[in-house]
Amino acid sequence: MGAAYFYHLTRRPLEDTLTMLLGKAMEAGWRVAVRGPDLARLAWLDEKLWLGPEDGFLPHGLAGSDHDAEQPVLLTSGAATNGATCVMTIDGAEITAAEVDALDRVCILFDGNDPEALTVARGQWKALKDAGASAQYWSEESGRWEKKAET
Known about the structure:
8-stranded mixed β-sheet; 4 helices
């Protein structure tokens, strides 16, 4: 049974936090799907990950190639086709309580400076909590990540 970790971004950009979380997931031995609703945004993120520092390179691919199943990190707008045990959602991508239960970890990253993103994240928190899923809320407002709530 997995857990959903909500990351309220207020200080660092998405690509920095995502890179940090992907590194931790890879250290844990997890295959990851990064799910977002916008293909152009995923392509932008793909480019950001490719241009990262050499010592922090994260092997990944954008969904739609013949090698999706082999990717340790797959950027996708749909289902994980790479055997992911961790799903990270961005930009309000949907996640269900059944997925949370079936995975090792779900990370929901949302922009704390965007009122619409806050509303979506609050709705996701409530839906997962009401469905009995385990969830944690993490904030970086103090300058470092701190757990602020847990269900």
